[in-house]
Amino acid sequence: MLIDEWKKAYKLLSVQANAIGTAMAAGYASMYEQLKETIPPQWMAGITAAVFAAGIICRLISQQPKE
Are the beta carbons of 58 and 13 closer than 8 angstroms? Predict the structure, then answer.
C-alpha cells in the first residue's frame, strides 16, 4: 500500500536521507583503490549507517506544513 501523495515522496526527509546514504555507499564502492585509502572503510560504514539512521528518525518527524 502506498502513502497518500506518493508522487511527492522526494520531498520527505527520510527519502532524501536514504537517497544520500545509497549514493554514498555506491560512490564509495566505485572509487579507485587509491582514493578509498584516504577514507577508512570503518569510517565510511559508520557515516553511511548514521545517514540511514537519520532517515529512520526523519520518518518519525511530522513533515506537514504548518498552517
Answer: yes
